[in-house]
Amino acid sequence: MNLLWKFCIEFVILLPLTNTLSIIPTLNRNPIYSNSLCNQNFTIFNNPLIPRILGNTDTLQICHDIENAISYESQVFYLYDPRYYDDIHHYSISSTNFSVCSVEPGTTNDLAIIMKIIGKNRVPFGIKSGGHSLNPGFSSTKDVHISMLRFSQVNYNPTDQTVDVGPGLVWNDVYKQLQPFNVSVLGGRVSNVGVGGFLLGGGYGWKSNQYGLSIDTILEYELVTPNGTIVNVNNQTYPDLYFGLKGGLNNFGIVTNFKMRALPQTLVYGGVLLYDFLEINNILNAAVNFQHNNQDPKAQILCDFTSLGGSVAINIIAFYDAPTAPPNTFDIFTSIAHLGKLQTRSFLSLVQASPVVITENMRGRFHTISVSNISKPVVEKVRDLFIEYTLASIPYGRTLVNFDVEPFLPSYFEKSQGGAYPHSPSNPLFPIVVQFGWQSELDDQVFINATQTVAEAILEAAIQDGQDLSGSKEILYPNYALDNTPLIKMYGKNLDRLKSIRQQWDPENIMYLTGGFKF
Predict the structure, then answer these.
(1) Which range is the signal sequence, renumbered to this chain (predicted)?
(2) How many degrees, rounded to 5, is the angle at CA 470 between CA 464 and CA 472?
(3) How many Cβ atoms sit within 10 Å of the Cβ of residue 57?
(4) Which one has a higher pLDDT value, 152 or 31?
(5) At how many degrees (to 10) do helices 280-293 and 376-393 cross?
(6) What confidence tens digit (pLDDT) does each residue in 75-114 have?
(7) Phi-psi region of 205 (alpha: psi -120 to 50; beta: other; left: phi over 0)
(8) Read out DSSP for 86-112?
(9) Which of 60, 151, 213, 303 makes an SS bond possible with 166, Cβ 3.0 to 4.6 Å?
C-alpha cells in the first residue's frame, strides 16, 4: 500500500522496512526553529508498520468508542489526517510515536469520558502538552494519544489576582496574552516549552529568586482523576493530592487548568550576550563571581555552552525584572568582548530572544546534576567536558552538545510552599543541565551513555570540591532527569508519601498505562 498525501508541515516522514521509524529533514529545511507550517509531500511507504497502526483492531475500536462518546467540542484524528501529525509531533523525533489515533479533548467532561473508556479497556495512552520531553514514551504512545491542545485558556482574574492557564499552551502564548494587563506568571524561560509538563515537574523561571518555583505559585488545579472524576484541588479541598501535584508529574490524573498567582510585570532589562570560544575561561570566572556576589533577587542569568554541527556558541542570558538594572549589575559580563546587547524590552521579547537549541529532526536526551555551590572547580569541569565531548561528537555528523549552568540566589528556596518535588530552604540546590542531540538511531546508546557519564563526572567534581551531596541532599529536577533516574533521587523522603497518595487516587493503576516516572 503506497500512500501519498500533501500535508502542511516541515518534515518528511519515512517508515523504513523495519519496526522502527525515522523522520528525515528535507534538504531545503530552514535550520531556524519555527512553528510555521509549509506545504511538503509526505510519502508513507509500504511496510509492516502501516498495518500495525491501521489494523490494530482492539485499539482502533477503542478510538471509535471514544469518537462516538465525546461531544462535538472534541475530536479524534487518524493516520490519514494532517492534524494527527501536529498532535504526535515532539521537539525530538526520538520522543515521537505513531499512535493508532490522536484524541483532542475540548472539554473537561469529554476528557473524563475518555479516561473512563481508557480505564475500562486498559489501553496504553500518552498525554502531550508541548511535547518537549526528551525521554521516549513519556508523552507519546503507540495506542491512544491525548493532545491537550484545546485546553488553551489564559484568563486573568484582577479581583483575586490569579490567572487560569491551560496545559495545551506554550509559554510564549501565555506571556503574550497577559502582556496587556501588565501581569505575568512564573513560567518557562525559553520559547516553545509546554505549560503542562513544565508546571507538573516544578518550574524554574526568571522570577524564581523572587517567588520560588512555579509550583510555589499554583493555588489550584482542575484535575480529571484516573477514574474519570473531575475535582478542584487546593490546600483546603484535597491537601494530600495538592501536595502530590506540586512536582509529582502525571501520576494522579490529567490537569486541565492551573490557577496561578498573577505577578506584576513591567518592562524588563536584559538579553543575550554571545562570546567567542576563546573567552570561555573569562565567562566561567564571571559566572562564579556573579553567583557568589549578586544579592539582588531581580537579577538572574543563564550560562550556556553549545556546539551544534561544528559551530560553538557561549552565551549569557541576562534578566533584570525592571525596565533598567542598577549600575554594575551585569558589568562583569558586558566588560568581556561580546556580540549582542542588553536593553529595555518586554518580558515576552526577552523570552523569545533566548536561543532555542535547534534540534528539530534530531534524537536527544536531557540529564541533570544538582550542586550546592556553583564553584570554580565545578564550572571548570563543565568546561572540560564540553570541550571533550564537542570534539568526540565530530565523527557522528550533525550533533548537539549543550550544557547549562543555572545560578540562583541561595535564598530562592526560602519561597518554597512545599510539594512533591523537594525544595527546602535548608538545602538550596542549583541545577546544571546536560543535553545531547544526534541524528542516527544507531548512535542512541553512545549518546545516552555520554549523557550519563557527563552528569556523573560533574557530580564527582562537586563532591571533590567538598560539597555534601550524599543521600537525599542531591535532589534531581524531574523535568531534566534521564528516564532511568531512580525516583528516590528526585523525591527523596517524599517518595513514600507520594506512593501512598497515588495508591489512594489510582488504586487500579490507570496512570501506569501512560509514560513518565511512576510512583
Answers:
(1) 1-20
(2) 150
(3) 9
(4) 152
(5) 150
(6) 999 998 999 999 999 989 999 999 999 999 999 999 999 9
(7) beta
(8) HHH--SSGGG----SEEEE--SHHHHH
(9) 151
